[in-house]
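INFO  loader      accepted 1 record
INFO  loader      residues=196
INFO  predictor   begin
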Amino acid sequence: MKSSRLITPPVVEPVTLDEMKAHARINDDADDELLSALLIAARQWCETYTRRAFIAQTWAQYLSSRPSQDRIRLIRPPLISVTAVRTYDDQDQETLWENNNYFIDAASEPALLVLRNGKTWANFERAANGMLIEYIAGYGVVASDVPAPLRLAIKQLALHWYEHRGEALLEGATAKVPLVIEGLLQPYRLLGLGAA
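INFO  predictor   done
INFO  writer      dumping tokens
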């Protein structure tokens, strides 16, 4: 079993408040707090939809059993770096797994952590989350590192939510994202991220 969680969120957003206000043609400061919150929510929605990280953020990926193959797929691309691989025994004692046991295949997307020839996976005794891979994912540390279509999708989605705030949904209905936003995101969307 494999699971992951965000450890450290991005320090900056791919779209600034000023960029959003220019995009939406908003000239006053009355809704700055709302717009800032919508930008974060839109970035998170777009990241979830594409299964990517946009701005540098730290992720933890856990494994509860030894991998059956010689590689582990790091499930939140694009990879910037692997910061640590740790294992845990049944008393929750942590052991750093040396990086000479593996290499990173960053040419694959998502990136792979691959065993070196002659090496075997570390033993871990803890029944759940016995191995932790900590890594940094994203296109970079500044907004301009994020591809323009992704930044535009964030602006468009935040604007859509801003313009349609307060709309009530009929019982059983789900909110639809405009097709233009999905169209901007589609080339970046990763599908079929099963275990590897």
